[in-house]
Amino acid sequence: MAVGSRGDVAPYTGLGARLQEEGHEVTLATHGLFEELVRSRGLGFHALPLDTQEEMTSKLAASGTSSPLKVTLEVNKVVAAHATPMAQAMLAAARSADVAMLTPAGWIGGHVAEGLGLPSMGVYLQPMTPTREFPPCTVTTRSLGGWGNRQAATTLRSLGQKPFSKAVDQLRTELGLPLMKPGAWLAQVDAARWPICYGYSPIVVPQPADWPEWNHTVGYWWPAPDPDFKPAPELVDFLAAGPPPVYIGFGSMPVEDREALSQLVVSALRRSELRAVVNTGWAGLNTAGENVCTVAEVPHDWLFPQVAAVVHHAGAGTAAAGLRAGVPAVPVPFMVDQPFWAQRLRGLGVAPEVIPFRRLTADRLAAALTEATTNPEYRRRATDVAARLAREDGAAGVLRVLNQLSRA
């Protein structure tokens, strides 16, 4: 059960495909916007309500992206507004299941699994378990001290459930379950040693020493490749016509002034004298020019190994794709967990700096691009990380937990 934008869904196509190779039947319950993505990878599909592109883009563009905490709360409100139909869709999807696998925003499925007597587990793309080692990744990158970090994450888990209380109470009543306050329900989940697999590499985020043994940092789940993908001839020609370009794209991020951002990108490319492949994304970038090739969706695993550096919003999936390709990064985080991943890229030595979107200028972007593409140390470090990631098998960790659940 995957709730969110494309980056919150695509990794589960790869995980699902691997589980099917091992003999499991897999249905991905997610938004209708991603039905083609899911079915084209050979997975079952069950629709969840909410058009994340339309509703999240409009709401977040209106509210602004200056405060990560504010954005996190706004995202929660968007999902909470659809909580009742979301719960019913999850219930319908789970009735034919043997195991429920839940993403962080799909946590209502935990009540569904409890009511149906299904074993369940978390499959998370961001570190959500409270720890002393760093603060909640969706709110801040500034340490609050050991006690403060852990307490902030614990409090955020409970607060995040409050907007859903009415829908959850209705669902639990329908399923014949006793009503519970969010904190009490979370305590029950923790006491049951509910397993969570984290789908990112311990190279990027080492597992905190104070996490319980039933939390597992297993490695990345790479999106399943598109079997029908054929690159546009103009893109192939552009790549072959000169030195490797840089990639610039901000994925599913909304912007208030797409023309201003487009002109900023064009200006930065002119100052750095670089060629670029620019992904229009949800921002709708318009950057036509002699040294620019504009694209819509192009698989990162095909494109990124052919570029000199990647400029992106530091979403978990795009940041991982850049690391996998072994290319330097210029992270421009907008909101939620993106500053966290941007900081990790900087810490790995694959990015010259982190440029928060609200502080993005043409001069700063041009300078970062020049540093990323001319200093060989960034490429060397990125290549080293890519080689280490290639030796990991994130899906194998999920399979181990599934086998344990089946024996329980």
UniProtKB/TrEMBL annotation:
SUPFAM superfamilies per the UniProt record, alphabetical: UDP-Glycosyltransferase/glycogen phosphorylase (SSF53756)
Xref: PANTHER family: STEROL 3-BETA-GLUCOSYLTRANSFERASE (PTHR48050), STEROL 3-BETA-GLUCOSYLTRANSFERASE UGT80A2 (PTHR48050:SF13)
Name of the featured protein: Glycosyltransferase family 1 protein
Database matches in InterPro entries: EryCIII-like_C (IPR010610), Glycosyltransferase_28 (IPR050426), GlycoTrans_28_N (IPR004276), UDP_glucos_trans (IPR002213)
Domain spans labelled Glycosyltransferase family 28 N-terminal: 1-134
Domain named Erythromycin biosynthesis protein CIII-like C-terminal: residues: 286-393
Organism: Paractinoplanes ovalisporus
Pfam assignment, any one: Glyco_transf_28
